[in-house]
Amino acid sequence: MAEDTTVSKLDFKYWLDKATEWGQATTLESQKDVCHHLPQLQEFLQQIYETLKHMNSVVAIQQFPLIGQLLGRLCWNPFVIGYDESQKILMWCLCCLYSSQPQNPVELKANSWIQSLLCHLLSSSKWESNEAETNTFISALGYTSADYYSHVVKNMVSSLVTELKGNQFNGLNVQGRVSDSRLSEISLLCVPLITLPDLTPLLETLLLCHGSASQEVLSSEFLEAVNEAFLKKKISLMETAVFSLWLRHLPSLEKATFDLLDQLVSTHMTSLEEVACVIKDSLLPQAAIHPAIFIIIDEIFKNILLETDGAPEVMTILQVFTQLFVQAHQNENKQHKFPMKAYFSHCRQPLVVALLGRPSAMHCSQHLKYISEMLKTLVEGESIRSFADLFEIWFLVAHFGEWLDVAAEQLLKAPADPDALLWLLAFYYSPQNENQQRTQTMVEAREIYSQLMMLFSCTALSVRDLQDAVHKAEIKQSGAQHLTTHLLINFLLFSSGGHMIAQEYIAHVTGTREASQEVRGLLLRTAHRVRPSAEGNPRAAALANDLLQKLASRA
């Protein structure tokens, strides 16, 4: 026959009256009465827990408005918490009342109260049957009550960490491993206490523990709560623990990635260094050296780019993320390093190797021509059978967008073969074009390039001169329009006369949010690439930064 776990209002009132009558059991009569009722009280508490665990905290409070009074009084009764499983059941009941996402000051205060009760229960010893004697003992040690309990919590954490060490995966079948149910139980108990600094070693140890079965043994509530606290910077964890969290709990990794993207897109940062600092601080590039994590993050970027039709701000974030990932990969211990094929498994590896090169470390025009020719062979060859195949190639190039910025700059230096660089830009901005359409894009790209080169050496220019140049080129293709914007921004930054009209022209072409974001992304990347510390072009970097400030003030 199934056990009846229904809690009647009559029973609840009876035990609340008893708890009030007992207080902290300081008289002989109350102590005798408590001891007499302990078995029935534990049975009642078990019923309470069986009911609460199927409710959220809001519903629980609505059904049992005085539940806090009852549990609070019982938690401070040394006879109750010293009897059998009562202390443990009280902890479970308190965990059920904890709000994982408090919505108002009342719930925040309730959470704080629950944390303090749990700390008290965790630090309570069964021999503490007389509070006065306990306090005398604490004072004799030179501690305040709060200090004493803090030390006991630290000792408890240390004891649990030692107990769990055997479950940290090392490829061996360790004797005396903690059971999966025990791991789950400990992780669930930690949920209301996650932000306590003393608990951090236990959190890290749990995240590095693995059960005996293939399925996850840590509670999902625990994993979600740890991730939420980490993302909100309420706790600090060592990197390996964070990486383990994201490896074992996909929703946490996805949330971390989306939170980072939301933060970067919603904040108008004025330098790529700021963007890189925020991305690096998230630990996602460092975590991505694990191929499983990289693939998930990459898939998120891919889907967002498809949904936003290649939003410029997302493209910039992807490029900075990739640069930081490559740095983290290069710094990884060679003994444990995965090959690049593990991250870009669907791409031609010679192209991956070519794109991984740093523009400043080689003859740029020659290497750009090599990349362009390799891409052209792939794109126009028979191996591309679908849009998906074409998109994978374009997406790979998008990771290493710095090469496109270098190509646009190199074009202004009158390279021997400008067509190779123009084709590279044309493919980037019009990857879906068929050969005939791409041919038309190239015709328009050559024309605007020719017009700009005729003006490049002019020291006295007007905005009208640039407008006339664009008009003469008769730009119609969408891809050619974006390519034109890219060339124009570089023209303004690097030409003799461009500096004088840059601010006016930028104001003219950034009337829409989309245009403003596109120009902002180009300026951010150029300012970073040619910054003085990179032995670049200080004058162009200063102008790009000034233009970024002007755009930010108009946002």
From TrEMBL:
One of its GO terms (cellular component) is Fanconi anaemia nuclear complex. GO terms for biological process: cellular response to oxidative stress; interstrand cross-link repair; nucleotide-excision repair. Signal peptide: none annotated. PANTHER family: FANCONI ANEMIA GROUP C PROTEIN (PTHR16798:SF0), FANCONI ANEMIA GROUP C PROTEIN FANCC (PTHR16798). This is FANCC protein. It comes from Nothoprocta pentlandii. The lineage of its organism: Eukaryota, Metazoa, Chordata, Craniata, Vertebrata.
